[in-house]
Specification:
- By secondary structure, this protein is of the alpha+beta class.
- It has two domains: about 100 residues; about 290 residues, Beta-lactamase (3-Layer(aba) Sandwich), CATH 3.40.710.
- The strands form six sheets. The chain has a seven-stranded antiparallel sheet with strand order 5-4-3-17-16-15-14, with helices on both faces. A two-stranded antiparallel ribbon has the order 1-2. A two-stranded antiparallel sheet has the order 6-11.
- β3 and β4 form a beta hairpin.
- α2 crosses α4 and α6 packs across α11.
- It is globular and about 55 Å long.
Length: about 450
Amino acid sequence: MRKFIYIALFFIFIFWIFHSLQAYEITKKDNQIIKKIENKLFSIIDERDSVTPEKVERLFKKVLTKKLSERKRSLIGNILESLQYQYFLGKYKMEDINKSKDSEIYEYIQDQMKQEYISALAILVFNEDGALYEKYIGTSHIQKDISLEEDHLFLLASISKTITATALLQLYEKWEFQLDDEINDYLPFDVHHPFYDTPITFRMLLTHTSGIADGGALDDQYYYWKDSPVELSYFLENYFTPGWKFYDKEENFHDFEPGSENEYSNEGTALIWLLVEEISGMSFNEYCKKYIFEPLGMDSTYWRLDEISSKIIVQPYEGTKSIEHYTFTDYPNGGLRSTVTDMSYFLQAFAHDGVSRNYQLLKPQTIKQILTLQVPKISEDMGLHMFYMNTQFNIWGHDGWEQGASTIMGINLDTGIGVIILTNQSDVELDTMLEKAYSYGAEIDKQ
């Protein structure tokens, strides 16, 4: 009986809305009345479990199918927006109508998207049992009006480095090399720091302490709507060999002895790519497919544009300017495209002794090394190509920035709760969003 009373109350309020709309113009007094109606609707929605979002949705659908003047549509639109509706050209979609933590974090994300001009954002908070919070917000392509969906691909930027490092560390597990071996013993050409005699090791590449810098030659290695026609092995040999095409000792190396300081190095990761190919005897792309992507079920993860046919790639933007899809020659340091779901399969292994989806990605002792501070005297957050991102929540992970891409992922080793956030906008700081998302996920996990 109470259920019918609540539904009846809703019809009364809907009648009240139309009565109010007929009596008032869009004035300050109108807004006060609308706010009063909102509060009464909220009070019923929040306090009566029997009133479900589906029932409210049906009620508003009946209202919105009627012929209304633009003034009336505007007033009703204000009410619907306050109730977490999206209203566009007479159609609407209910996202959430309760004032819970879910709506709070959703509103926070929407605010950040507006401030940072993010048109598409995917977020997944998960544990070993699956998703705790998952949203796909915005538009994959503004001009084509394509709404973002879960299988749309984002450019991962530097999060890609964690895949590249994993490939190398799988070979380390097979006793193919030791972390403190000199890389020149495994490369087809030598890499020497021009200012110091100290040899560069695998560990130095994995901890960004090699002294290798990202020189100006990289600026001309972006290619739009196609994969780079420049072979990465050719580029690297020319980059590190004195007197060759891309060599510049002042730009290509930092002025510190290898192993003595920590400076982020994209070209150090590019060398990891070459080491994987040389040691495994396989192409890097095929190696990743065979030993990482396919065993984990990462069916929507690609290094190359020419392998993406039926999938939609989220359009990158810098501010309000769209950017054509692109690759760069040193792609293993930031050129992977994937989804939050696929990356959750990968990240989950780091909180479960290297196992995800019944596949032993890495051995427990290797995971422990990755998630241990490697050079604590010179870096407070550097593991093996992973960072200790948040001491408050014990989160390890990685973030990334590229043209039209800002990304972040992290996982708590104690709770096993992970967060992955992918966007299509340049230079967005996502650390705070990751913290809020993790906190929300931890609350849900306790329930």
